[in-house]
Description:
Blueprint: E1 5-8, H1 10-23, H2 28-44, H3 54-63, E2 73-78, E3 81-85, H4 91-109, E4 111-119, H5 126-133, E5 138-144, E6 166-170, E7 177-181, H6 188-196, E8 206-207, E9 213-214, E10 227-228, H7 233-253, E11 268-275, H8 283-299, H9 314-326, E12 328-331, H10 332-345
Parallel strand pairs: 3-4
Antiparallel strand pairs: 1-12, 2-3, 4-11, 5-6, 5-11, 6-7, 8-9, 8-10
Amino acid sequence: MPAATQRFDPHALEGFACKLLERGGVPKERAIPMAQRMLDADLFGYSTHGLAYMSAYLERIEAGHIRPRAELSVLHDQPNAFSWHAQRAPGAWVMGLAMKELLKRVADQGVVSATIADCSHIGCLQAYLLPLVQKNLLVTLNATNPGIRSVAPFGGRDPVLTTNPVAWGIPTRGTPILIDQCTSVATNTFFRDFATQGRELPAAWLLDSEGEPTLDPAVLQRTPPGSILPLGGLDQGYKGFGLGLMVEAFSLALGGSGRRQSPDMYGQGVFIQVIDPDSFAGRELFLDEMEYLVASCRQSRPRAGSAGVRLPGERAMANRERQLSEGISLSDEIISRLRPWAERFEVAFPDVRR
Length: 354
């Protein structure tokens, strides 16, 4: 049975989220991007990374895992590349600064890359792609958490990596292509939800601590823990394993801060690169090629039982447009998590949209 939901005005929710963060100790100029990125996730339909994260953020602020007033350290800077250490400053605020810097430089440099070490959680990766592809820029974004080990290397049984998401933003003349996926068979949250609900998995996507395939999501919480299989599973998991290693190299090793320091579970490493097609064959030729590719994909005949081809990001953009118009849908479970913080900080909960 689908979870019960209620709809709220996006602007009212943003103001509500900002007030909660400010009462939790976040300066307003840093609270705003944090709230906006959570709302972006909800607009796209990724409720696990939307306002559902508010409780975790406020708890991490209280525990010192997010440092609301921390300042950045510059590790390296040259015209086409820069590297920062974020000191656990709010992730969305840090990413906002990085994106402004990337946009400022890319017109002259053509390609600009950046790493951010020890950043607090940045949220939904797709939220950072959209403003850049809307300017006809090609974007690569990787982020991972070196303090979490949940994914086994292909052929192994012990967890070493985590779900290591990869994201690319590709401009087109229509709806942009927004790719955001993990390099394991599914996310940590996916398996946690199955375990909480006491449900078996639909397939053997996990290994127990002895390396045996299992349908039981609870193996990830046992001692010693089980592990998640890389994308491709038991047979083709070397493909996901390779992609996972790539994410670690770009988002952790380039920034000089990763697993060898045995960090806790609250910091992330980020790699982002922005490419201006005008510095290559040109923007119009790039868009011509993408237009042809998109049209070719759409013309592919649907296979039996399929509704046809849907390009990455298409559903998320449709969700965003609909919810901007009709209101953001929040489940009763998420609302119940937010109300205690609203009461504690004496922040009025937004009215339900009728």
